[in-house]
Structures are given as C-alpha cells and as structure tokens.
Write a structure and sequence with these properties.
Layout: H1 5-20, E1 79-83, E2 97-101, H2 107-120, E3 123-124, H3 127-188
C-alpha cells in the first residue's frame, strides 16, 4: 500500500511518541507489593503527582496522545478488521482494511475463508498461524499417503513371508515323509 506522505510522517511521529512516552505507573507501586502497577489517578491532598510538580510521577494527559489521522491504525497503515465469517467481509475495502482472522476458527473453515480473502485481494495480518496450519494439514495429508504406501509394503512383505513359510512347511513335510519311510525300512530289516 502506498501511504500518503503526510500519513507516513504521522506514522513515524507516532512510533517516536510511543518510544518517548513514559510508562505511567501507579504511585508507590514500586514500594509496596499490594499496590499494583496499573495506573490510578492520585488523590492525596499533598500528592506531588496530583499537583503536577516536577518531583511527582508523570500522569497521563492529552498531550501524550497520537495524531488523530493515524490513531488506531496498524503499523502497516491499514485499519484492522476482525473476521470470523465470510459475511464479515461485506463493506470492507482491500485498499483501506487489513484482516485479522479469528483464532477460534477451525482449519476447515479457515481454509475456505483464506481462499475467499485471496480472491478479494485483502491483506492478512495473522497469516503466520494460518500458514502453519496449512503446512501442518499438508504434512498430515502427505503422511496419510506415506502411511498407506508403508501399509501396502508391509502387507506385501507379510504375503511374501507367508509364501516362504508355506514353502518351508512343504519342505519339512517332505523331509518328515522321507524320515518316516527310512524308519519303516529300518524296522523291516
């Protein structure tokens, strides 16, 4: 996607702001285990943070916000859209929206959805998981073919072994007959 120069500048400014912005921590969270790290507004009567003194902890305010034109955008510049069914694609523009496919979706439905998305020309943000699933499915399918081939080979080997055993049984039977004949001849003498 070609980004407008102004939008590109604002995106880089947004990344700069995210690096510079302090991590807003709750007062005394570094001192007490019972006080969690998530931000809470300071309300103490003598609080340096509430009074906005230099010595106090930085508190969130409107000045830390990102530019409105690039707010809530994906770093690629697209607006994210969460997709579960093909019906969710209605009203979306491939030039504006990038899709994030639900992780709850099964492989069968995901494959159908991916084919539909490719037809319409959307960009997929979490293709990595889907790609891994597709490769895994292909591997499983290949293994099925390999297993079938191996099973056929095993069956052929079993048939060959049975034939060899039958031949050996026949030879043994002939030898026993010969042995019994020689014993009978020896008894007659």
């Amino acid at each position: 996607m070609k980004m407008h120069k102004d939008k590109k500048r604002l995106m880089s400014y947004r990344t700069h702001l995210q690096k510079v912005r302090p991590s807003f921590r709750r007062i005394e969270s570094w001192r007490y285990v019972r006080v969690k790290d998530s931000w809470r507004k300071s309300r103490g009567i003598d609080s340096k943070t509430r009074r906005k003194w230099k010595a106090g902890v930085k508190s969130p305010n409107i000045g830390y916000r990102t530019p409105k034109a690039v707010r809530y955008l994906h770093p690629s510049g697209f607006t994210e859209a969460y997709i579960i069914t093909p019906k969710d694609l209605e009203g979306l523009n491939p030039k504006i929206h990038a899709l994030r496919i639900s992780s709850r979706l099964g492989a069968k439905k995901r494959i159908k959805l991916l084919e539909l998305i490719e037809e319409k020309g959307f960009r997929i943000l979490n293709l990595g998981a889907a790609q891994k699933e597709l490769e895994a499915l292909e591997e499983i399918a290949d293994r099925g073919v390999i297993l079938e081939e191996e099973e056929l080979e095993e069956e052929e080997e079993e048939v060959e072994e049975e034939e060899v055993e039958e031949e050996e049984d026949e030879e043994l039977a002939e030898l026993r007959e010969l042995a019994s004949k020689t014993k009978k001849r020896g008894k007659k003498k």
